[in-house]
Specification:
- The complex is a heterodimer.
- Chain A contains 5 helices and 3 strands, in the order ααββαααβ.
- Chain A is mostly helical.
- Chain A has one domain.
- A two-stranded antiparallel ribbon of chain A has the order 1-2.
- In chain A, a hairpin with a 2-residue loop joins β1 and β2.
- In chain A, α3 packs across α4 and α4 packs across α5.
- Chain A is globular.
- The two termini of chain A are 16 Å apart.
- Chain B has one domain.
- Helices cover 52% and strands 8% of the residues of chain B.
- A 3-stranded mixed beta sheet of chain B has the order 1-3-2, with helices on one face.
- Chain B is globular.
- Classes of the chains: A mainly alpha, B mainly alpha.
- β3 of chain A pairs parallel with β2 of chain B.
Chain lengths: 80, 203
């Protein structure tokens, strides 16, 4: 999981990579909003960890239809 | 890169991020009965949807006009009907402690399905029914993993499911990976198909 996350961070789209680097250096949160989803909303409403929020924003850039549909449908999960 | 991930995750953020706590985590473990086989599960699930929606036409009050308490009873009735048809004995509970985007969850230890009670405010039962079907599919995956000789699911699929149960990716860590992992993709596909088949059978 950790290695996969590292790989994904290294392959972020340029737009999200710049925001991620800024956050990593200064802790400044991105203001960007894609398909109605922002960093703040993802961490607050979806309880995402900071890095997960950047990965979700990156997915929204790469596959906006699929990613926003997946987020819109909500979370059904295993409770492990 | 790997070394900095832990550091980055520990940078303080505004708003404490808490993992969802299962209100039934300490509940008694329920021993499930046998599930039907996978082909029968599909037929029974679509029939349970069809049966619920057909009966709702004559029900007084119908789901959309019912109170929150009545809707909860109707949903339990749908789940009981699914259990009766599939041979399983999973439990269903509504929780008022789930996050706004948490629809439902299946606990493989207690075999319990938790549903977000807020979903009962929607006059359309589709989302709740699909969530019950989705979580019930997780129950079936769990049953197949633990009883591989009692189901006709191929060994490779069971192996993939087992590995995924053991290395489950939560949406809080990577939403794309959570959404695309095998057991979630399978449960999403199952719930959508069964609801669609059930509604298509309505006369």
């Amino acid at each position: 999981m950790l290695e996969q996350t590292a790989d994904k961070l290294e392959q972020l789209t340029p737009q999200i990579a710049r925001l991620f680097e800024t956050w990593a250096e200064t802790e400044q949160k991105p203001i960007l909003e894609i398909c109605g989803y922002s960093y703040s909303r993802l961490t607050r409403e979806f309880k995402m960890k900071p890095i997960a929020a950047f990965l979700a924003l990156d997915w929204l850039v790469r596959e906006p239809k699929k990613a926003s549909a997946a987020l819109n449908r909500g979370i059904r999960k295993l409770n492990i | 890169m790997l070394e900095v991930l832990d550091y980055l995750e520990n940078i303080p953020q505004d708003g404490k991020i808490e993992s969802w706590e299962d209100p039934f985590r300490d509940s008694e473990v329920v021993v499930s009965q046998d599930f039907c086989d996978i082909d029968e599960l599909e037929g029974h699930s679509a029939w349970a949807v069809q049966n619920f929606l057909e009966r709702d036409i004559d029900r007084e009050p119908c789901y959309s006009d019912a109170s929150i308490e009545q809707r909860a009873e109707y949903m339990k009735d749908f789940h009981d009907n699914f259990n009766e048809l599939s041979g399983y004995s999973g439990n269903l509970h509504f929780s008022d402690k789930m996050g706004a985007y948490d629809l439902g969850a299946f606990n493989p230890t207690t075999k319990r399905i938790d549903l977000n009670a807020d979903l009962l405010h929607d006059s359309n039962p589709e989302q709740l029914m699909e969530t019950i079907l989705h979580e019930s599919r997780h129950a079936y995956q769990d049953y197949a993993i633990n009883n591989p000789k009692k189901v006709s699911v191929d060994a490779d699929t069971i192996s993939v499911w087992k590995n995924n149960f053991e290395h489950y990716i939560t949406p809080e860590l990577d939403y794309e990976a959570y959404f695309n992992q095998p057991i979630e993709a399978d449960a999403n596909d199952f719930a959508e198909r069964m609801y669609e088949q059930g509604t298509n059978r309505l006369t």
